[in-house]
Amino acid sequence: MRQPGSSGALFVSLVVSLLTLAACSNGPGPQQGGTQDAGAELTVFAAASLKEPFTELARDFEAANPGSTVRLNLAGSTDLAAQLLAGAPADVFAAADEANMAKVLQGSLAAGEPQVIATNQLTIAVPPGNPAGITGFRDLAENRAQVVVCAVQVPCGAAAQQIEQAAGLVLSPVSEESSVTGVMGKVISGEADAGLVYVTDIRAAGDKVQEVPLPEAREAVNRYPLVRLAGSDNTQLADAFIRFVSSANGQATLQEAGFGAP
């Protein structure tokens, strides 16, 4: 015999079950914005001369943002800009000059205005002991030294050309490289008597090379702009990385590597 009130209890139980199922099926999906970005992979295209400080900054940023990963694509700024214009996916772009950043801006690939994070200038790198006896820029032009420079399309090459024009001298390089890393490699390997590289590269190379001062480089200071790219899927994380680089700690890391203040 059925107990009184059992049908009512059954009905209430059924309603509760249905409401529970509805709540589960309509519950919130994956978190958006910062929560989603926090565990994302950030792709940063950065000028080759930024290798040392950006490697350190990427490591520190990952530690400050658990679950995030920063992938660095380091190359000449001209090559990086060309890759971006060809459709390469990236979140952040740091160039070694404003001319290559302008290409990205003209291609409508930047989200907002770039900000300058550092400055740099060229100097002369020679093998230890300075076998060719290089004393300054004039020696590079007049003493028939085997000199390596960056191609003029690359920021370090454009800067070298500006120095030539300011000094009224013309170099006859034995090789023109696509990045300052290539120039430094030629000097370190002994394939060149001297090379025009950034002061930051001299510091990073340690005792592998020797520096000969280049006062004329004051005529061609490179400014390094940084920007989030319009195609980024991780906008909050990209913006956080840019703030990190621009912070007091980020600036200290850049200046420890030899970069000048913005």
Automatic annotation (TrEMBL):
Keywords: Metal-binding, Signal. The keyword Cell division does not apply. It holds the Pfam family SBP_bac_11. Gene3D superfamilies: Periplasmic binding protein-like II. Residues 1-22 form the signal peptide. InterPro entries: ModA, ModA/WtpA. Belongs to the bacterial solute-binding protein ModA family. This is Molybdate ABC transporter substrate-binding protein.
